[in-house]
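Continuing the series of single-chain predictions for the mutant panel. This is the parent chain; the variants come on the following pages.
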Amino acid sequence: MPYNRLAIYGHRGWASSAIAQALLTTGAPAKLLYRPGSNANGLKGEFTEVEVDIKDQDALRAALKDVDILISLVGREDIPLQHAFIQAIPHTDVQLFVPSDLAFRCDEQGLRIDVNKEKDNVERAAREAGVATCVILPCVFAESGLNTGLLGVDVVKNRIAFAGDSENQVLNICTRSYVSRAYATLLSTTPLPHLKTRTIALSEIHTTGAEIATALQKKHGVPPKIFHHSLAEVDRQIDECVNFGKPLGLGWYCRRRWGAGECVGALGGDVWDGAGVEKRTLEDLIVKGELGGYRELPGFVLEALDKTFY
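Parent structure:
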């Protein structure tokens, strides 16, 4: 089976490190691009290392020689840097750009949040430049959604804050390992014409808030403490975060999409079948304790998350 030639930028983050490692062990010819002063320490596999300042267009174009797919895995702070890729790609052999997203499609309310707006700007710029893209959307990572309080679920403290009708509405979550294998499987061997202009949704676990509450009770032996927020209250919280620069705007917005029954629809209809990749269950993650940890969050974010349980 022929392989696509890959270039990967962004490999130090919580999600990006696992995704990059999965991509580098597929057997596909791969280049790992990284900024000056960084390195490929800790990554395994056969790949070419290229140190490049992506703001240097000549150097970036040279680094993208003999590449079919450019995969960006930058964190939220570096989302705007992807415009450098869009500027360079038309002058290279790259046929497909996979921008960093790792979330879901946003409505007008969601685009008020800076990181969502910046992702949308990147995709718009790519279309205007005639750069073909493939966007991969897992909705919410299980590790951040269930282990930090981001979605109103706190496994450790056995509590859950329902927003709107999230008790009965479906939430789509994926583990980091599942997302990593999806990237590797989809991008290493899928023919390029089958990837271009697609928005591919990943779906490992579909669950409701009620099912999560039941899993919490099974884990702890007692029912979780339950809180309720109306969608109007959630909207008020989003407005405060956007208007006054408070943290957790994205978290409240995720809770709103879930509580309004919009999580699955926000992924679109092109859902990867996950063939050959192991899927975990809610039982595995919560009851059996197999839920992985998330990256360390700043103290002020943890404090703000704790205050959302009321």
